[in-house]
Amino acid sequence: MPRYFVVHCQDAPGMQARRAATAAAHRQYVEQHSDRIFMGGPLLDDSGSRRIGSLLVLKATSRAEAQAFLDAEPYNLNGVFESVVIRAFECVVHPTEANKQE
Q1: Does pLDDT of 95 surpass 90?
Q2: Rounded distance between C-alpha atoms, residue 100 and residue 102, angstroms
Q3: Helix H or strand E segment including 101
Q4: Do residues 82 and 2 touch, judged by C-beta distance below 8 A?
Q5: Of 50, 77, 92, 93, whose CA is between 20 and 30 Å from 99?
Q6: Distance (Å, whole) CA 47 – CA 44
Q7: How far apart are CA 60 and CA 67, in angstroms?
Q8: Are 75 and 15 in contact (CB under 8 A)?
C-alpha cells in the first residue's frame, strides 16, 4: 500500500546556473513520474525570487522506493543538492482542503 514521503532538498551554494541548466531534464523526469508525486515545487529564499531547493511529497511503498526515485532525479544526479532528507509523512489536511481556506 502506498505511503507518503516528504523529500526536502537543499541546493548547494552557487548552484543556480547548474539548476537552470538541469531544469528541462528535471521537469521531464517529474512529468514521467507524475503518478508518484502528490505535490511538489521549488523552495525559495525569503524574498521569493531565488530557488534554493525542492520539496516533494511522494507516494511510495517504502523509504527505499522514495530513495530510488531521488537517486535517478536529474538535479540530484547533477550535484545540485547539498542535502536530501526523506521522511515518512501522514497527510491530515489535503491540499485541496487547504486551498478552500484561502
Answers
A1: no
A2: 6
A3: none
A4: no
A5: 50
A6: 8
A7: 10
A8: no
Other Cβ atoms within 10 Å of 24 Cβ, number? 10
Three cell numbers written together for 51: 530557488
**In the structure, what pLDDT confidence band is assigned to residue 100 with cuts at 50, 70 and 90?**
low
Residue at 75: amino acid letter? Y
Distances (CA, A) of 89 to 14, 30, 84: 30, 20, 15
Average pLDDT over residues 77-100: 85
Backbone angles phi, psi at 43, to 5 degrees: -90, 140
User: Whole-angstrom Cα distance, residue 97 to residue 39?
Assistant: 14
Contacts of residue 63, defined as CB under 8 A and 6 or more positions apart, other chains included, come to 5, 86, 88
